[in-house]
């Protein structure tokens, strides 16, 4: 990867009250620092109520290991894994019911982050919620279970900080290390859609709002 750390103010002329800063981390990939901070008051209660309907749980990998991250979903499709493989399902396997609806505040935030990153008309039908407690991690992987790769991935981080690894198109490619903080959003799509990415083990700590955990929400067009 060439050096692509350009920092500038996306909102310089249009919305001076908006403090988010955009940092380019790939040809079509952006880190939007603090992007979600103004929306957390409606967003966090909506997250609490959907997690009451579809609780976080440790799913089984196809290889038979329990994931260190606990997951849930909202929207028309939810990402699941069990002994039969990784896939999207319209039904929560725990309840046999459809996943909770995607809250409007989630959808609107994801669309706005996508369009400010050059992806106009993003219509996510899936939001995967991952909870990391200290020590939990996500190995390098590509997001490949979606039916098409034309839509970007929009990722929102909440709670404890994480070291995000943003790599290339082969697992062994060099990775950028990006510290993701509460309220940060990362968007990758287009030519960068299939970049490998992962998360190093979360360090112990306590976040004033979310306690001893990190939550990550990834918005996708899956179907
Ligand atoms: C993921 O790739 O599904 C999660 C990324 C993150 O937790 O930041
Ligand atoms: Fe991913």
User: Could you spell the SSE succession in H and E letters?
Assistant: EEEHEEEHEEEEEEEE
Q: What's the average pLDDT?
A: 93
Radius of gyration: 16 Å
* Structure annotation, total helices: 2
Shape: globular
Just give the CATH class: Mainly Beta
Number of domains: 1
How many beta-strand segments? 14
Specify the CATH homologous superfamily. Alpha-ketoglutarate-dependent dioxygenase AlkB-like
Q: Whole-Å distance between the termini?
A: 31 Å
| Structural category | mainly beta
Distinct bound molecules: succinic acid, fe (ii) ion
- What name is given to the CATH topology? Jelly Rolls
Strand order of the biggest β-sheet: 1-2-3-12-9-14-7-4
Describe this structure in words.
With 223 residues, the chain is mostly beta strands. It has one domain (23-220): Alpha-ketoglutarate-dependent dioxygenase AlkB-like (Jelly Rolls, Sandwich). Helices cover 12% and strands 31% of the residues. The protein is globular. The model is unreliable at 8-18 (pLDDT under 50).
What's the topology here?
Blueprint lengths: L6 E2 L12 E6 L2 E5 L6 H14 L16 E5 L3 E5 L2 E5 L14 H13 L9 E7 L5 E4 L11 E7 L2 E5 L9 E5 L4 E4 L8 E3 L14 E7 L3
Antiparallel strand pairs: 1-2, 2-3, 3-12, 4-7, 5-6, 7-14, 8-13, 9-12, 9-14, 10-11, 10-13
Bound molecules: succinic acid (SIN) and fe (ii) ion.
Comma- or semicolon-separated keywords:
223 residues, mainly beta, Jelly Rolls, 8-stranded antiparallel sheet, 4-stranded antiparallel sheet, 12% helix, globular, binds succinic acid, binds fe (ii) ion
């Amino acid at each position: 990867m060439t050096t692509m750390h350009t920092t500038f103010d996306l909102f310089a002329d249009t919305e001076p009250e908006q403090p988010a800063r955009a940092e380019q981390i790939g040809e079509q990939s952006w880190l939007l620092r603090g992007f979600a901070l103004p929306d957390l008051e409606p967003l966090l209660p909506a997250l609490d109520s959907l997690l009451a309907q579809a609780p976080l749980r440790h799913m089984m990998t196809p290889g038979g290991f329990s994931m260190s991250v606990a997951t849930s979903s909202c929207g028309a499709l939810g990402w699941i894994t069990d002994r039969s493989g990784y896939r999207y399902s319209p039904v929560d396997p725990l309840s046999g019911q459809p996943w909770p609806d995607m809250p409007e505040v989630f959808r609107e935030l994801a669309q706005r982050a996508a369009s400010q990153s050059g992806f106009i008309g993003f219509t996510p039908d899936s939001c995967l919620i991952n909870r990391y407690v200290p020590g939990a991690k996500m190995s390098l992987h590509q997001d490949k279970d979606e039916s098409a790769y034309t839509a970007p991935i929009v990722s929102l981080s909440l709670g404890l900080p994480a070291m995000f690894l943003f790599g290339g198109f082969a697992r062994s490619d060099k990775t950028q290390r990006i510290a993701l903080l509460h309220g940060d959003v990362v968007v990758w799509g287009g030519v960068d859609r299939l970049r490998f990415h992962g998360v190093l083990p979360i360090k112990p700590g306590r976040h004033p709002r979310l306690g001893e955990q990190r939550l990550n929400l990834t918005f996708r067009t899956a179907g």
